[in-house]
Amino acid sequence: MRTRTRALLPAAPLMAAALTVALASSASAADVTAKRTITDGGKTYQLALTGPNSAAAGGANVTVSGTGYNTGQGVYVGLCAVDGAPGANKPTPCLGGQDQSGTTGASHWVSNTGGGTVPNSSRFGANGSFSVKIHVKADLGGGKVCGETVECAIVTRADHFDSGDRKYDVHIPVTFQ
């Protein structure tokens, strides 16, 4: 019995170390940060959007956070089809469309004008920050499937008060498995 115990003891730390490395690698590879510097109204904003770059094709709830946003300009956070670099073209269509009832959880509205008063909305925190949960999945509907018919990203984009403004578009490209 001693021989067997001795044989297992040296392997246990190696197995634990390998598991720790594997977990640390997958956790750090899952979240990425996209950055964009913009100037709006003579003020410069350092936008940073952090979220996962991959998800389950059938759907997953993910946390997305941001900092450096203009608290005077609300943004939508969601999964959308993208075409070109951030700011080149409006990210659309987006999963869930205009989910004003808050039933899909596919988008979140961050705004200091009305945020927190309707489902899936909140106000900005200090330094234009936010942390929200959204639901993502590969099938956007209408024949639009991420990675097959369209390229997709978790995005921020200006809200309905200035929907044509492309300055607040930040993209985290997403692949689905």
TrEMBL record:
Signal sequence interval, chain numbering: 1-29
Record keywords: Signal
Region of interest (Disordered), ranges: 96-120
Keyword Signal set for record: yes
Segments forming a coiled coil: none
Domain of life of the source: Bacteria
Biased composition (Polar residues): 98-120
Protein name per Swiss-Prot or TrEMBL: Putative membrane protein
Source organism of this protein record: Streptomyces spectabilis
